Prior knowledge:
- Helix content is 39%, strand content 15%.
- With 357 residues, it is of the alpha/beta class.
- The strands form five sheets. The protein has a seven-stranded mixed beta sheet with strand order 2-10-9-6-5-3-4, with helices on both faces. Strands 13-14-16 form a three-stranded antiparallel beta sheet, covered by helices on one side. Strands 1-15 form a two-stranded parallel sheet.
- It has twelve helices and 16 strands.
- It has two domains: 2-238, Type I PLP-dependent aspartate aminotransferase-like (Major domain) (Aspartate Aminotransferase, domain 2); 240-355, Aspartate Aminotransferase, domain 1 (Alpha-Beta Complex).
- The two termini are 22 Å apart.
- Residues 56-58, 80-81, 83-84, 126, 152, 154-155, 176, 178, 189 line the site of pyridoxal-5'-phosphate.
Amino acid sequence: MINVTKTYLPDKEKYKKYIDQIYANGWITNNGPMVKLLEKRLAEYLGVKNIVLVCNGTVALEIAYRTLGIKGDVITTPFSFVATTSSLVTNGLNPIFLDIDPETLNLEANNIENMITKNTSAIVPVHVFGNGCEVEKIDAIAKKNDLKVIYDASHAFGVEYKNESILNYGDISTLSFHATKLFHSIEGGALIINDDTLVQKARYLINFGIKNTESIQELGTNAKMNEFEAAMGLCMLDEIELVTAARKKVFELYEKELVGKVQLQEMNEYVTLNHSYFPIVLKSELQLLKVQKALNEHDIYPRRYFYPSLDTLGYIKPKQFMSISRHISHKILCLPMYPELKEEQQKNIIEILINNL
Ligand SMILES: Cc1ncc(COP(=O)(O)O)c(C=O)c1O
């Protein structure tokens, strides 16, 4: 069976060594040495100043909104994983959708200003499939209108914009380290916080708001990453060059064989690619279903992702209609993409796909 993704498991012996260390010091959670080390190493690897590790990418978004004190309406994209929207709703914020560019699949930055009202407090764009948003434009609009920007950068691990980490844009960027991601810690996530003065607030928020044994500073929650997850992250980081090189190879073969045959995502010219996904946009939903069925018959399972468009969620009130996002979500398929995918398997996928267009 070939799934859309397969979790990369780093060297078991190395992981065991980290586990031995955890057993030896008896510290398994609460900002232990593995979490501290992973924060340090990730900050260096990614080229960012402040990184706060948390238990997953959804909670990273929630902590970001609370760190920045976001209220009221938030302009965001309907074309994302459900967590981008649900994290807003569960925090009492109103997602105000803005449609996407049909080629880049990212929020259409040119239309942001028309959407701003007195109730708007923030913009939450997503670097969809690792494709960087127009960060300079978005950040300038936010500054002019006194809005905060939180980039959902769950897909953008390691992506650079004009030779520096794209995570350095906006007020906060969040990452997901879920097992299916390019870099993972089993479950996990992170906040990259650009204002040094906000880092401590985020650290209180992820640990029940506790300042010290005698005082509670904030209304907090429990969003901590544990030591076993951090140890997995450390092992992944040791092998990250291998992972990215293998993904690049898979990506480039798909690209070579499929360019001109199906619509591929148009990438921002200023960003580096991290090869985390390979989405294709088909001519119609009918064609998508045909391709999907043919692949499934060979035990190959691409994923309809993102589907459905988030403006169709039942809990979004008042109703909004994002025609481009809906249109794309009906026709988009992410092809199997992971380091261990073999060339013969990939060629088979490509052949079945092309024969069913
Ligand atoms: C764009 C996006 N945002 C948020 C999340 C949520 O991350 P997590 O699964 O780590 O909670 C994901 C995870 O798949 C995602 O793809």
